[in-house]
Amino acid sequence: MKNYLLSLFAILLAISANVQAAEPVSIRSLLNEMIDRESVARFPAYEFRLKQHSSYNRASKTPEDPEGWFNNHDFNSNDKDKNFIRTEENNGEQEWVLMDHEGPGALVRTWMPFRNANRPSTDTRIRVYLDGATEPTLEGNMLGLFDGSGLIPYPFAHQSLRSAVSFFPIPYAKSCKVTVTDRPFFFQFTFREYAAETPVETFTMSGFNDAASQIDEVGNLLRHPAVSVKTEPQTLSATLEPKAERSIELPSGNAAVRSLSIKLGSYDDPSVTRSVILKMEFDGQETVWCPVGDFFGTGIGLHPFQGWYRTVSEGGTMSCRWVMPYQTSGKISLVNLNDEPVAVIMKVQTGDWTWDDRSLYFNAAWRGQYPVPTRPFSDWNYVTLQGRGVYVGDTLTIMNPVEKWWGEGDEKIFVDGEDFPSIFGTGTEDYYAYSWGGISTDFYEHPFHAQTRSHLYDKLNRKTSGEKNTQGYSTETRTRALDTMPFGSSLQLDMEVWSWTDCEMGYGVGTYWYADAATRSNRSPAPQEALNVPPLPNMDAASGGPKSFENSFEFEDLAVVSKPKGVELNSQSLTNYRGRWSKNGHVLVKGTQLGDVIEWAIPAQSPGAEKLVLHATKSYDFATLRFTVNGIAIEPAIDLFSEKPTPTGAIELGEFSSIDGAYTLQVEVVGKNRESSGFRFGIDCVSVTPGS
Hints:
Number of strands: 46
Radius of gyration: 28 Å
Helix content: under 10%
Oligomer: single chain
């Protein structure tokens, strides 16, 4: 009887699975899948392969021909360029065919850039023909249809940095053709190719309208990601000594990690996010070895952003919402590779999971290399995988030593032993969903991609000029929902190293995928390379020197009238920290104690009253100061404490008349915040302008 019941239960499970699998692919099913974090932890029920039609240069045929393989002309600038499928005439009008796929599928990502870096407008029409129809199912402005300003709302479609990007699913049962009414520029259309027997409900406008409430709900969830887990988190709060490792053992049995957060005690040294390593073991096998910055998408240093799978907060908490299942056991560890202790707080929440034959283990790995020569042009391998799995994202941090643009390189992705990549891109920034990289050195974020840092800029220090300097660190991150990449036997992801300058760059990439236990990667722990942090270049060399604030005097150049014995004044570069300082640095005043007074002389610029505005720095061991100008005290005192170095912004001292052609600025240490560990301070510059 017992065996009979077990057999009956197995039959019912099989019937249930078949009923679920019989539900056709549709707008609604794909929208559900987009926010179902569990779904990426299983191999797809309806198996597909991700494909892409793009404007890559058709001269790229084989690595044996480097001139063609690394040809950078991935767009159409005149009638001689043929980086599209074909042209055809419909109703007396010429159309350029950009995508043409036969068989069941779903368009899951579109990317098209501005034709001019500073002008988002276009008159070109884009048309989407489904299932062989002679009339388009979708038609609109080439950019407006897919930039969030038209039919498809944000966040499914949006305007990133100088690009129109859409992730809204457009399923089709038989075919999909995309055309434009003028010669195309750059483009990428990424789609799922399903097996021939897969049931698919083709996108229709009536179906789109019927899904309006679901579209609103999914869009709201994407903008406000959260995890609902009833279990209390397991917490590790400790100081990691140099070379030490601390762990959390996960509950035994069938379960899954649902959320993970890590906060380091200090990010003053930006390289701490590269030297603290996250490790994970599931069912006795290590599947994750990755620096925390590359795992969470912040790169080198703390650079806040919000995504669907990961969030980095301004307060320093880095969190992720990947679902990570296991069958019997799990362990999550932090390793400190550095020579200094690091305070850490790690929290892990787990939940139920039912393991089946589609369940996969979460994996993350890291590769770093410095230096990387930019000549000759080359393909830099992110990762190569052997076995079955699903690729779900990556974070690239590069160090560019020169001002000129570094990211012309195309992604080339080979799946299941392909001779030619089924995904051949048009530029590194295009892969990360923006364009015109030489000028797009600003922060941006979206649920599925972000540029968390570029040049001097991040979420807390936005770009306000039109400069094209791309020196320093840039961090690009992309996670995948409907555009995940399943593979049955292998996956190889390469990115071209293609800079406009012959130089030596630094590359580091974190990669994330789900896979069977038997799947293998070509990545292994690399502690020495993790400590080989690419040095920042002289950020001012290419631009003729650091920029001063307008009408300002640097404290490095001002005469010190008096100071206590033992107090030291040292110039300090602050290029590694977020925020803007005049000439990228300040004077660090050390050895100060409560009651110390330092005086500077500031030259007057005119005989009349003038306005004085001071810029200083806040940090974790800085004092509270009172400023006095020509004997007049400025109230209140200024508390310069902050958990990490940051500029104060403008401190308006007031309007004053000079004495003997100068102003005497007196700075007195009057106390400190109870959380501050010292009485030091940093002082940047003072501007002198005509009074009112």
